[in-house]
Write a structure and sequence with these properties.
six-stranded parallel beta sheet; single chain; 10 helices; 2 domains; two-stranded antiparallel sheet; Arc Repressor Mutant, subunit A; disordered C terminus
């Protein structure tokens, strides 16, 4: 991708315009539009092609998350990065299930935002660590007996946590004291177990279906007595 086309949707004009001016000066980015309301954004989705939509959660005329389905109807390949001061746990779960590719908190730095945009544009997931905990907590629900065949091993769980924290393979390797090739192998195991092919798909499966068991590694069996 030669440049990343960005559409900014935020009802705070000072933040929106300041962010737009910053992105205009950053190489590899092109701001294709700015919207201050849900109504403006809905019209823009029909007329402006974007690679990444930076979408505020709390818009003046409603919640930004409601726009995700509208965007996907017009631009299926466009990615959504929620850029927000905060949102309820249930809403964080809801926007991810609706198709958002990440949540970025406004207290982060501009350099961190560029990293988040690049990862989302590449098809990855971006979640601030605080949001990971919120999403996992909010998405827990009573389920039947756990499917032991699908429970993660300790190493798989460690790698899964690294992916949810937005770490690269090299960073995960450092955290868990393993080689990068070992991390890649474990990720392939996770792909097969989840029946997916990409990190973003893996994160969605973990959040939506396995948050209650995939973040808890298997415990070693006690030695037999007697």
């Amino acid at each position: 991708m030669d440049e990343i086309r960005i559409l900014i949707v935020d009802d705070h004009s000072l933040f929106r315009q300041s962010l737009g001016r910053f992105l205009v000066t950053a190489p590899g980015y092109r701001v294709v539009g700015q919207c201050g309301s849900k109504a403006e954004a809905a019209r823009a989705f029909e007329q402006i092609q974007a690679d990444v939509v930076l979408l505020d959660f709390d818009l003046g005329d409603g919640e930004g998350g409601d726009l995700i389905a509208e965007l996907k109807r017009h631009q299926e390949s466009a990615k959504v990065l929620m850029v927000t001061a905060g949102m309820p746990d249930a809403s964080a779960v809801s926007v991810m299930k609706a198709g958002a590719s990440g949540i970025f908190l406004k207290h982060g730095t501009l350099d961190e935002l560029l990293i988040a945009v690049e990862r989302v544009a590449a098809g990855d997931i971006w979640l601030d660590s605080d949001d990971v905990r919120a999403i996992v907590t909010a998405s827990l629900a009573p389920i039947g007996a756990p499917d032991r065949a699908r429970t993660l091993t300790t190493r798989q769980s460690e790698v899964m946590r690294g992916i949810l924290d937005g770490l690269t393979n090299k960073e995960i390797a450092v955290v868990i004291n393993a080689s990068e090739s070992s991390v890649k192998a474990v990720i392939q195991e996770l792909f097969r177990k989840a029946g997916v092919r990409t990190r973003s798909q893996l994160v969605r499966i973990a959040i939506e279906k396995h948050s209650s068991d995939w973040l808890h590694p298997e415990q070693p069996e006690s030695p037999a007595r007697g």
